[in-house]
Specification:
3-stranded antiparallel beta sheet, 48% helix, 10% strand, mainly alpha
């Protein structure tokens, strides 16, 4: 018997929990680009490049001062300003494993991860 969509998403989430942050961010950004969710796109935290040409008041308005650290590796532009983080599971990270799992299941995108490809192969064999 093949897995239903919820079971498949749950299985994908278990695999995602083992994936390194850098790979998760890459996967997340591909999801953002393909499904046009650019408000959740993650950039490298190069504040000089992100705010190039902004006046000091614009800089202050574009940074969420409570959730931004210039030493963090990544940044996302929210309605409240830039917020930063280091790892995919940090509080300021926009990555939701359930949303990424939905993308993977709907698009059958494996991102070169053998465990994900195996989930879909096993499911096809059971049908």
């Amino acid at each position: 018997m093949s897995m239903n969509i919820k079971e498949m998403k749950d299985a994908v989430i278990k695999v995602l929990e083992t994936v390194r942050s850098v790979k998760l961010i890459e996967m997340w950004n591909e999801r953002c680009e393909n499904w046009k969710y650019m408000e959740d796109y993650i950039d490298h935290n190069d504040i000089d490049e992100l705010l190039y040409g902004c006046s000091p008041s614009e800089v202050l308005n574009r940074i969420d001062t409570e959730n931004y650290n210039m030493n963090d590796d990544y940044v996302v532009d929210t309605q409240y300003g830039y917020r930063s983080f280091d790892f995919a599971d940090d509080d300021n990270s926009p990555i939701e494993l359930s949303d990424l799992a939905e993308y993977i299941v709907m698009e059958e995108e494996y991102f070169g991860i053998d465990e994900l490809a195996e989930l879909f192969e096993d499911d096809e064999e059971e049908e």
